[in-house]
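Example record

The entry below shows one chain as it appears in the dataset: sequence first, then C-alpha cells.
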Amino acid sequence: MLLFQKLTLGWIFCCASTAFGFSVLDYVKSYNLGLNLIGAAEFARVSYDSSSSTSQGKSNCEAQSSSSRCTVAAQSGGQSKTLGGVGFFVEHPFEQKGQNFFWQVDLSFALQILDGQYIKPAKGEVDDTLQNLSYSLRGFQVKPYVRVGWTPSGLPDLILTAGPVGTLLAGTVTINDQKEKVSFLQRSKVSLFKAAHVTFEAVFLRHGEGAFSLYWSQSRAESSAAAGSFYKGDVGEMSKFSASFVHKEVGFKWLLNWP
C-alpha cells in the first residue's frame, strides 16, 4: 500500500507539472542554496509498554489494562540543552503576489543527524525498568508547506510557514545495552489548528532572489507505537517502543542569490 501511495503521488506530481506548463527539471533547478546560523534544542520523547509491577504508580507511567505505558525524554547532545552551528538548505526564492502580500505552496527538504541519550534523573519516582537508552540516526525529511507573508514598504517582511512533516530515519538504537539496527518512517499528526512544523521569519534584507532574515521554527514527527517502529524487539519486560522527535531552533538565515 505504501508503494502504491508513493507511485500515485509521483504520478499526480508529474501530470500536474505537465498540465500547468512546467517540467520537473525546471522546478528542481529553480531552488536556491542557503546558509543558516542556528542555536537549536532537540529531544525525543520515547514511550514503551512495561509489564513490570515496579512500573505501576511511577510518575512517568500511565496504567493500562495489563501493563503500563511509560515515557522518558532523551536529549540530543546528552546533558547539553542546546546545539549550534552552521547549516545548509535549499528553498525557492520569494515571489511577490501583491503589493503588500505574498503566498506560496511548495516543498522543502532537509538532512537530519540525530544523536541522543536518556539520562536517568537523580531525583523523582521514575520507572526503573529502563536503565539506559541512546540512539544514532540519520534521516531525510520532506516538508510540504504553505507560506504566507506581509511585505510592507520600509519595514521587515513578516512570514509564516506551516505544514506536515515526513521523515525516513535509519541507524542504531540501544536500550539497556542491547543495540539494534533500525529503519522507520515518521510522520506528523496534523489538525486544523495544529501544524507539524511552524516557522516565523522577519526578513530584513533582500538582494535579487536572495534574502537575509531572523527566524524561529519548531517541527515534530512521530513513529508508530503499534508497529514498535522505533525499536522492534522486546527488552526484558518492555515492548512497543515509539518515539516523537521535537526540534526547535532560532537563528539567522541567508538565502543566496545562487544558483
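Notes for this example: The longest strand covers residues 32-50. Confidence is low (pLDDT under 50) at residues 1-16.
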